[in-house]
Amino acid sequence: NLPEIIVPEYLQWLLENDAEMKKRFDKLPYSTKKFWTGYIDEPKSDDGKVSRINHFFDFLTGRKTTDQMEK
After folding, report:
1. Each residue's pLDDT expressed in tens, for the chain with a length of 71 residues
2. Are the C-beta atoms of 33 and 27 separated by less than 8 Å?
3. Angle at 27 (CA atoms; ends 45, 32), nearest 5 degrees
């Protein structure tokens, strides 16, 4: 069994309040969930976290790929 992924409380709240995003998140492979939760929680500033959450939601909706985010 894979270790449990710890989803930050603020991200969990956002997902629980957006059924479509939650459904898309739940369908992601383990490694993708692990990457995004770590990536989002890494910055110390709230602004940095918000920016990364916006990137994550763009990724979930297909508006941006991870390659486009690096540019």
Report:
1. 889 999 999 999 999 999 999 999 999 999 999 999 999 999 999 999 999 999 999 999 988 655 555 54
2. no
3. 45
Write the DSSP assignment of 1-15 as a string of letters: -PPPP---HHHHHHH
Contact partners, residue 55, CB within 8 Å, separation at least 6:
64, 69
Cα–Cα distance measured from residue 1 to residue 51, given in angstroms and rounded to the nearest whole number: 32
DSSP 4-68: PP---HHHHHHHHT-HHHHHHHHHS-HHHHHHHHHHHH--SSHHHHHHHHHHHHHHHHTS--HHH
Q: Is the dihedral of CA 49, 20, 14, 29 positive or negative?
A: negative
Burial of 26 (0-12, 13-18, 19+ CB in 10 A): exposed
